[in-house]
Design goal:
Length: 367
């Protein structure tokens, strides 16, 4: 096992080369290493089957670790039984006891830990206030809305002051508006109490808005682990660029490298500049990555590094913005997001336009 740094708070939770296989053949998680600081909010993000939930289940103790080690506060928990790990969990299904009142649901984790009646009463009152449900203690789960039930499930996971709180797609069953409200509630409680969170989701917007850092999974391997801003603005590879937010990919060939800038020729014969990703070489086929909101349509009042001619196809009205679709010389499409205001341009199908963008907003990845 690699040595742990001296600051225990910065190395509160450590995954060290954790691997999970089934039947010695099917690799689910490959050499996963991650260090989490005390009080940090980490999201494991990725498509279905990418390994993120398996990591969470190994941390909870519901899945065994094939090799590697998991430690909390300097102590290995790899072989510790789940009920001895002092971990709180919040599930998509709420998992509340339907025959118990809300107060009884909150009291249950304290009762099994042999807390005194006075402490249980005070703690239940405190956590009902924390989730702003002071008047709901006598109700049953079936009498609450989905959002209220999820707030109770969150309070029950926190009330016994666990070392970690694990959340597995906790908002997946809620509608969009309620989901956004609960994102705010979880973030508010995290900032108020300061508990350490490992959060699993496949919803990139949820991950970007809630997390201190995000680990992006694909096929059992972490592609990149970084802050939301770094993941969005500087994706490490084409998978991350495609999975996080929206992206346009433009085919091209790297003509030459000028430091960290790749000079790329696109199918129309035009040459554009992009930031060269690791491993990119002159003469190599490339995929240029540039986000729709980083593209602009001439005329514009600013100067841009890159210009490309394109043919207007259609536009979609989305409310606060308008999405324009253009066809490039090779028949591929790109889309441009433009704020819905009086300056939004109008085109007829087949009209020629010039699309522009900055070097710093474009990345060249191996094709």
């Amino acid at each position: 096992m690699q040595s742990v740094e001296q600051d225990p708070a910065a190395n509160y939770l450590v995954f060290n080369q954790v691997k999970k296989t089934y039947d010695q053949k099917t690799l689910v998680v490959k050499d996963f290493s991650l260090t989490v600081a005390k009080g940090e909010f980490i999201t494991l993000l990725g498509p279905s089957g990418s390994g993120k939930s398996t990591v969470l289940m190994m941390l909870a103790g519901f899945e065994s670790v094939t090799s590697g080690d998991i430690s909390v506060d300097g102590v290995s928990i790899t072989r510790t039984a789940p009920y001895h790990r002092n971990i709180g969990m919040v599930f998509q299904s709420y998992a509340l006891f339907p025959h118990m009142t809300i107060a009884e649901n909150l009291a249950y984790p304290l009762q099994i830990r042999k807390k005194s009646k006075a402490e249980i009463k005070d703690r239940v009152k405190e956590y009902l206030a924390l989730i702003e449900m002071q008047d709901f203690g006598g109700r049953y789960p079936g009498q609450l809305s989905g959002g209220q039930r999820q707030r109770v499930a969150l309070a029950r996971a926190l009330i016994f002051e666990p070392s970690l709180v694990l959340m597995d797609e906790p908002l997946g069953a809620l509608d969009k508006k309620l989901r956004e409200q609960m994102q705010y509630e979880i973030t508010r409680l995290h900032e108020t109490i300061g508990f350490t969170v490992i959060y699993v989701t496949h919803d990139q917007t949820e991950a970007l808005s809630m997390s201190d850092r995000i680990a992006v999974f694909n096929a059992g391997v972490v592609q990149q682990c970084a802050t939301p801003a770094e993941l969005y603005e500087r994706p490490a590879n084409a998978f991350v660029a495609d999975f996080i937010g929206e992206n346009n990919f433009i085919a091209g060939t790297v003509e030459r490298l000028e430091g960290i800038t790749a000079m790329v020729t696109v199918p129309s014969g035009e040459q554009v500049k992009a930031q060269a990703a690791d491993g990119i070489q002159a003469g190599q086929a490339t995929r240029l990555s540039v986000r729709p909101e980083k593209l602009f349509i001439l005329p514009t009042s600013h100067a841009y590094d890159n210009h490309m001619k394109a043919k207007f196809v259609t536009r979609h009205y989305v409310g606060d913005f308008i999405r324009y679709y253009f066809e490039l010389a090779d028949g591929s499409e790109i889309n441009v997001k433009v704020l819905n205001d009086s300056a939004a341009p109008t085109f007829n199908e087949g009209d020629q336009a010039e699309i522009v963008w900055l070097l710093g907003d474009c990345f060249a990845y191996p094709a």
